[in-house]
Structure formats: C-alpha cells, structure tokens
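Backbone-to-sequence.
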C-alpha cells in the first residue's frame, strides 16, 4: 500500500420597528409585524371609553333602576392579554482572540496521527486541552429566550434593551415522507471498521414530539418531558442518527412548552450549552421556519449564523421540500444561514436529486445547499405504531425520507468523522470545507436540478473514504487582522503532488448580525464582511482558482499535468470592519482548509 499523508493546520428581512411612545426610545430594537399588530390592538383597547348605567337608591340603600346612562370616561378594557414571543439578543460579544495555528498529519497507511500547535509538536491530550481552554475563554453567548408577554412587558423590554428582536413564536414545520433506502456511503466499511461510530460526540435535535420509546437506546437523553407525545418525525430522525452513529450521545428535545412546563432552551435553532452538555458538537435540524419568506435572508437565519459563529457547534439544516404550493424550490430558513451546512436530498437508487429537494438561494446570493445526501430510509422495523395524521392516524413502519432524513444522516456522518479525528471537534468551518471538497460520487442531474449553483459544492455525494483519508487539513483563528499577512494573504506549499485528481476547499464563519443589517444597508456589494478567494499555482502559473463573492466557502477541482509542489494562496480581497457601527461588528478570522486526493 502506498503511504499517504494527511495534514491539519489551524491558526434577519428586517421586521417592523416599533413606533415607540415619546416616553422612551426603542428605535434600535426591532419587532415583527405580528408583534406590532398586537401592540396596536392593545393600545386601541386602552383608549376606549366604557358607558355604564347609573342607579339611585332609596332610604334603605336599595338600588333603584334608572334609564340614565353615565359615561365613566377612559378605561382600560383589555384583559392584559399575553402573546408567546421569541426574544433574540443581537449584541455581539467582543473579545480578543489569540492568534493560533495547528497542523495535523495522518499517515494514510498506519493511521498514526501527529499534531502541532503553533509550530510545536504536541500530544493529542495537549492539543485537546488547548482547544478546551480556548473554548472556555470565549464569552458566553446570550442568544435569547421564549416567553409569554403582555404589551406593557414588551414595551418595557424595548426600553431596557438596545439591540433585541421580538417576534411571535411559531412552531417549526416537520417535513415528512416515506420510501426505501439504500446505504452507499461506506459508513459500515470505512467508519465502523475503524471504530468511528460517533463515540465521544453529542448530537442535539429538537422536534415537535419525541421518538418512540421502543427505538430509544441507552445513548439517548430526553432533555425535557415529552409534552407533545410520541411522533413519527422525531422517531425517523432518531433512527437515522442512531443507526449511522450508534455510539454518539443523542440529545432529544420536545419543541415548545405545554401544561405549564417551562421550556428549558428558548428556540428550536438554539442548543443546550454548559458543563452538562460539553460533548454537544453537532445539531441536526429537520424543520424549517413557517414564516420564512421565499428567497430572503431573515432574522431566523441570522440567529443560526450568530450561534454557530459564537459556539462553534456544527449546525446541519434541511434545505426543505417543495411539496407545498408556493415553495418554488427556495431553501427554507434557517437553511439560508451562511454558517449552516444545508442538505439536499438524493435518491440512493440512482444518485439523482429527489424531485422535491429545494435548491434556490437567498437574496444575498449565497449558494445553497452545500451538501446533498441520501434519503429514503427503510429500517425494516418489526415494531409499528400509530401517530396522529391529519384528522385520522397513520402507521409508522420504519420508512423515512425527504431532506428531513438526509439531514440527520449527514449530521451522524460528521459525528463518525469527529470520533475518528477528535481534533475536528469545535471546527464547523473545517467540517464544511471537508464536505464541499469530499463529495466524490457525482450526482447525474445536479446541473439540471440546481442551475444556479456555479460551484463544485452539492454536485456530488460524500463518501466516507473521501472525507477521512488522503487529505490535508488546516485551520486558522484570530482577530480580524491577526492571521493574514500585510498583503492580505496566507501562502503555503503542498508537496508531493503527482498527476492525480485533487480538490481543495476553504470555508469560514461570519456573523449573522452583519449580514442581517448589511443586506439592507448595501444591497449590491459587501454582503459578506470578508471576501476570501482561493488560488492554486504550480511553477508560478495559476492552475485552479475559485473567486465567488457571496459564499463563505471556495472549492476548486483540478488535475495537474505535471508533478511538483503546489503553491496555495488564500487571498482576502475584502475586510470590512466598522467598530463604531452595531451593524458592522468587527469580524474574527475562523477559517478552515482541506485538500482531497482521488487515489
């Protein structure tokens, strides 16, 4: 067997603005149209006057009826109604990031791993301790919460907070379907045979309802009571996760609160954090926002981007299914989030995109989805159960499909990869770069199904061997001006290049706050705070390049005609930072790189 070496080197639209009373200023906060309507309705109740009959009394104090009507004047007739709301904090925590770089070499023959931190070789334990220390030093991210509030309570929140967004709470839409599955991704032959089964990795998912107890394993943790009862959709999601990453700890959460139970975590796109959940590195989202406008990047997407940017949890999101009138194949929120890994659905019998899989991009021009993966799972369950289905009931027989199935399948594959290489934990930027460059198996109808996609991404299907072997991995992290040189470049050499098929990908994280506001401030340019391009040279000549404007990733596919070293240039063309504007917070550099070799 030829010896191969692998390296890793590191270093919303805007809602209605509340027309505040003159007694306070809430102009820097936003509320949705539904909340504005609620406030208007409550205000109209306050201004009503209440007529009442007048009475006279006799000498004994008994009431004597009168036809006279007395107007009592202005009175509050509202019953102090409350509305269920999501409150999102848009203040971005700012902190100094120490410039770091890491390097990882994996011997493709022996599997032996060597690690470097800031150019010094370290042990796996030292590497992980340094990563854990960096995670602890980041400030806590306050994403928001869900509550039931009156109009007065909403106004008080707007008075007290500078940058919040209040919207009406909506349940996520479950995307469901049934058919068969064939598993062709080398999970059994390449991941499981290397003891990569998700061990040491936590996956969080949230659904309306819970998986059936019959299918739950000892690795399943129910985070709250199952207020919505056993449902088909979370059962299907769990079966995909648990069969693909059987040793991962899977955290399930029933969406929303019922019967007075407090919702422990505020929104379906946010995840539990803290010491008890320090193993959660992945979240799987087989749902979409019911109020997501087609083609628009909205506050739900910004929430997802901010969360990934601050917590470094890999968020895998369903692109959505155009099985509803008016969908028109637009990727549904929060799948439009730039930091999310958005997944389309592929038929395992012919490797083609499923006819319903969404693919249209958002108004800021980012190309979605980044990944396409298999759906149509048949688990051959010996146990079946009934679940509510419209006005009647349906039977769950172990069939599960749609982008809802492709999403947990991708999330669980990532869990296997993280258990194979623990150094990948906490690096969503690297995971995306690995996926967009490791989609080895071609999708025959990719060009016709997704004509807007001009990149290599999502035109093939990931297989485990192309994700885990024959690769170079690098990451960099630091302050905005702490990683790139004075020419805004990172330049390095890839040695040992032969006449073979290569693919190189980079990906980086960006804040949702910047995108949410800047798309309205400047609708034609500078939609991403950092525009980073990728160029590959050999003997001084450019042989491959990727220069998209609105994607937070680049990928090139090439075959050198000669042997010889490659010069890799990662060039940052745009670096927007405005410390004085809450709309353009200074960005961090969180950048991942990987090279795939087709052997």
């Amino acid at each position: 067997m030829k010896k191969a070496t692998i390296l890793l080197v590191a270093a919303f639209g805007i809602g209605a603005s509340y027309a505040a009373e003159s007694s306070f200023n809430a102009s820097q906060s936003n509320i949705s149209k539904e909340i504005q309507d609620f406030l208007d309705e409550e205000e109209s109740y306050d201004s009503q006057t209440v007529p009442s009959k007048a009475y006279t009394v006799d000498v004994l104090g008994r009431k004597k009826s009168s036809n006279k009507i007395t107007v009592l004047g202005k009175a509050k007739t509202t019953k102090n109604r409350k509305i269920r709301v999501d409150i999102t904090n848009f203040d971005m925590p700012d902190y100094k990031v120490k410039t770091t770089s890491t390097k990882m070499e994996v011997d493709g023959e022996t599997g032996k791993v060597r690690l470097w931190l800031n150019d010094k070789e370290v042990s796996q334990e030292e590497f992980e301790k340094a990563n854990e220390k960096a995670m602890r030093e980041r400030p806590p991210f306050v994403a928001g919460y869900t509550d039931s509030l009156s109009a007065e309570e909403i106004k008080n929140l707007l008075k007290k907070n500078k940058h919040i967004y209040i919207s009406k709470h909506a349940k996520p839409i479950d995307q469901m379907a049934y058919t068969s599955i064939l598993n062709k991704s080398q999970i059994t032959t390449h991941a499981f045979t290397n003891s990569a089964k998700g061990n040491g990795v936590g996956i969080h998912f949230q659904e309306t309802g819970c998986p059936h107890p019959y299918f739950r394993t000892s690795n399943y943790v129910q985070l709250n009571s199952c207020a919505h009862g056993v449902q088909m959709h979370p059962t299907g999601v769990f079966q995909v996760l648990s069969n693909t990453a059987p040793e991962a700890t899977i955290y399930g959460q029933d969406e929303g609160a019922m019967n007075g139970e407090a919702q422990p975590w505020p929104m379906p796109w946010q995840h539990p954090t803290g010491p008890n959940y320090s193993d959660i590195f992945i979240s799987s989202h087989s749902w979409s926002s019911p109020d997501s406008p087609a083609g628009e990047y909205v506050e739900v997407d910004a929430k997802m981007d901010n969360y990934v940017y601050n917590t470094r949890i890999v968020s895998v999101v369903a692109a959505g299914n155009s099985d509803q009138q008016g969908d028109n194949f637009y990727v549904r929120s929060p799948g439009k989030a730039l930091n999310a890994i958005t997944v389309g659905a592929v038929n395992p019998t012919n490797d083609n995109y499923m006819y319903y899989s969404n693919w249209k991009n958002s108004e800021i021009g980012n190309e979605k989805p980044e990944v396409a993966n298999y759906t149509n799972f048949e688990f051959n369950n010996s146990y079946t159960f009934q679940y509510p289905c419209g006005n009647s009931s349906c039977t769950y027989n172990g069939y599960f499909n749609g982008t809802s199935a492709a999403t947990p399948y991708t999330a669980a594959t990532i869990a296997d990869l993280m258990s194979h290489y623990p150094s990948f934990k906490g690096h969503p930027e690297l995971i995306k770069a690995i996926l967009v460059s490791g989609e080895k198996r071609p999708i025959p109808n990719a060009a016709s199904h997704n004509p807007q996609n001009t990149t290599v991404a999502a035109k093939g299907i990931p297989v485990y061997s192309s994700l885990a072997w024959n690769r170079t991995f690098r990451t960099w992290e630091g302050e905005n001006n702490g990683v790139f040189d004075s020419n805004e470049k990172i330049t390095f050499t890839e040695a040992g290049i032969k006449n073979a098929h290569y693919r190189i990908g980079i990906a980086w994280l960006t804040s949702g706050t910047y995108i949410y506001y800047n798309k309205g401030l400047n609708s034609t340019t500078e939609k991403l705070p950092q525009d980073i391009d990728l160029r590959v040279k050999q003997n001084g000549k450019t042989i491959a390049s990727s220069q998209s404007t609105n994607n937070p990733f680049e990928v090139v596919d090439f075959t050198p005609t000669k042997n010889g070293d490659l010069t890799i240039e990662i060039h940052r063309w745009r670096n927007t930072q405005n410390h004085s504007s809450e709309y353009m917070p200074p960005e961090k550099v969180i950048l991942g790189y990987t090279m795939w070799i087709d052997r």
